[in-house]
Amino acid sequence: MGRKFQLGNYLLRLEGKGFKFGEDIITFIYFGKQSTGSSDYLAAISIELTLKCQKRFDPSFYLSFLERLQAQNITTKKQAYALANQLGLLAVQET
Record's Pfam families (predicted)? Predict the structure, then answer.
């Protein structure tokens, strides 16, 4: 699978694209990752979909979606997007 995915590097890339996360949000992101037992990769997917669906970082959406990804045994971005579509979360963006 190549190099190990690192959540910190992903957050830095997002910051480079203009997304600003305060220390409280970063702490919450890692708290959610730890509390759900998720990988860095899965946490990043949840962040990505949170930003796409909410147009901003919504901590409760992030945690809820991360929990759902874990419960559904989602392991890939393709599966996560399929789940988001199934739940109707991305319907508005596809117009």
Answer: DUF6123
* Residue-level pLDDT at 3: 58
Whole-angstrom distance, CA of residue 29 vs CA of residue 61: 11
For 74-88, what is the mean pLDDT? Answer: 95
Q: How far apart are CA 59 and CA 49, in angstroms?
A: 12
> pTM for the whole thing?
0.88
| Closest residue by Cα to residue 72 from 46, 47, 44 | 46
Q: Which candidate, 66, 48, 65, places its Cα nearest to that of 57?
A: 48
Write out pLDDT tens, residues 2-12: 457 899 999 99
pLDDT greater than 70 at residue 93: no
Instruction: Report CA-CA distances (Å) from 53 to 30, 49, 56.
Output: 20, 6, 8
* Range 49-72 burial, b when 16+ CB lie within 10 A, else e: bbbebeeebeeebbbebbebbeee
